[in-house]
Specification:
It is a single chain. Helix 2 packs parallel to helix 4, helix 5 runs parallel beside helix 11 and helix 15 packs antiparallel against helix 16. It is globular and about 65 Å long. Helices cover 44% and strands 16% of the residues. By secondary structure, it is of the alpha+beta class. The mean pLDDT is 93. The N and C termini lie far apart (48 Å). It is an enzyme of class 2 (transferase).
């Protein structure tokens, strides 16, 4: 078998069998295929696409290129949740203890943030003492005893994906549904959960900008998960404006805690209730979405979810007192109001620009080597559909880097569109994708 022949076959639009896909992934992972030939094959895939079966084969090969975590020692059906990334997406911090408090085991491996989207691990590390490092034994014991653990992905999971993504990034082959789906799902499948809930963001602040592309990506990932024996559901959710009000690591931790206290922003609460209900259905804790939603609501109103969050924080070395004392979290020296330049209704808030503004202040990374300021970020006061007078506060910027403020402020102000006529906010949830159907709302 020769890589030359595989490249030529895909260049000419033919289907690749499992053996040839396995050959490519295995040899490239071991540096036995040079970058120039791998680039040629990736470009052929980009142009001619892969069918459903090829995409499953590619995902499986990438999954098997590194460690595959065995979570069979954890009791119950393990459900993982993956978000394709957005601005203000602090969902795991609230959702994991919510679902765990309802009886579903949450064994989650999360990532760090890069660019305008934040990473769950960075946010959790804003909690003093919180450790995302744990060996397999502690991880499994934590889930069995506490029903919850969140840790970082090991460097040995899906080795091929790291190499291939770096190559795609510099060869203009990122935006292909099969390659994106395989990249996401190989890591989720290697992480060992029995079922997977996908939160596919769509809109300005998301990786997928259009609804059609977002549904297509969700369907591809659901097909992969189900094709490899994991019950998988995809949800399409809005990221045309930031989720909730807080953008930035410690600020998002506070908003997640407030949500478990019953004081969360309307959109964020709705998302947690919806995702949580589907996770409980996947974990077979309940039979219907409606029953699951009621369980999630009860977990908040009863205080069980908040207690589970404290337990989760303490178990991973963190100071659980942060739940009642936000002064224990990193705080910025400067908290400055950003005022509206005109009167009118907010018709648009470009989520990506808000994320970039927060990144400039220090809340995100432009490169993997950048050091985060865990206290930096933005707390919105107004959202789409709200009326503002000239001079009203749109948001508060939290920062320590004085030299970055004006640049971040300019990006922030330009992200707002203020008009004379009232604009209705867009839907939060656009639809659900299962192996059997695509249901659009």
């Amino acid at each position: 078998m020769r890589i030359y022949d595989i490249i030529r076959k895909k260049r000419d639009g033919h289907e690749l069998p499992k053996e040839e896909i396995n050959f490519f992934v295995e040899k490239y992972s071991k540096n036995e295929i040079p970058d120039y030939q791998a680039s040629a094959l990736l470009m052929a895939i980009y142009i001619n696409k892969m069918n459903k079966q090829e995409t499953v084969y590619l995902t499986e090969a990438m999954m098997n290129s590194g460690d595959v975590i065995d979570l069979s020692a954890i009791k119950g059906i393990k459900v993982d949740k993956h978000s394709t990334g957005g601005v203000g997406d602090k969902t795991t911090i609230a959702l994991a203890p919510l679902v765990a408090s309802c009886g579903a085991p949450v064994a989650k491996m999360s990532g760090r943030g890069l660019g305008h989207t934040g990473g769950t691990l960075d946010k959790l590390e804003a909690i003093p003492g919180f450790s995302i490092e744990m060996d397999a034994e502690k991880f499994i014991n934590s889930v069995n005893e506490k029903n919850i653990a969140v840790c970082g992905q090991t460097a040995t999971i899906a080795v091929a994906d790291k190499k291939m993504y770096a190559l795609r990034d510099v060869t203009a082959t990122v935006d292909n549904i099969s390659l994106i789906a395989a990249s996401i799902m190989c890591k989720k499948l290697a992480s060992g959960s029995n079922a997977i809930l996908l939160d596919v963001k769509t809109g300005d602040g998301a990786f997928m900008k259009t609804l059609d592309d977002s549904f297509e990506l969700a369907k591809a990932m659901v097909d992969i998960g189900c094709g490899m024996g994991r019950e998988t559901i995809g949800m399409i959710t809005n990221m045309d404006e930031p989720l909730g009000f807080a953008v930035g690591n410690s600020l998002e931790v506070i908003e997640a805690i407030e949500t478990l206290k019953g004081n969360g922003p309307k959109d964020f609460v709705m998302l947690c209730e919806t995702l949580g209900a589907y996770m409980l259905v996947l974990a077979k804790v309940c039979e219907s979405f409606e029953e699951g939603k009621k369980m999630i609501q009860d977990a908040i109103s009863s205080g069980r979810a908040l207690e589970k969050l404290k337990e989760f924080i303490e178990n991973q070395g963190g100071d659980k007192r942060v739940v009642d004392d936000y002064d224990l979290l990193p705080k910025s020296k400067n908290i400055v109001p950003i005022k509206s330049p005109k009167s009118g209704y907010i018709s648009k808030i470009e989520a990506e620009e808000i994320g970039v503004s927060a990144m400039i202040l220090g809340a995100g990374r432009e490169t993997k080597e950048d050091e985060l300021d865990l206290s930096a970020g933005i707390v919105l006061q107004k959202k789409v559909g709200d009326y503002v007078n000239e001079g009203d506060v749109l948001a508060y910027m939290h920062y320590n880097k004085e030299e970055k403020f004006e640049q971040a402020k300019e990006r922030f102000i330009n992200a707002y569109e203020i008009v004379d006529d009232k604009t209705q906010p867009k839907k939060l949830i656009y639809g659900v994708v299962t192996k059997d159907e695509i249901k659009k709302f």
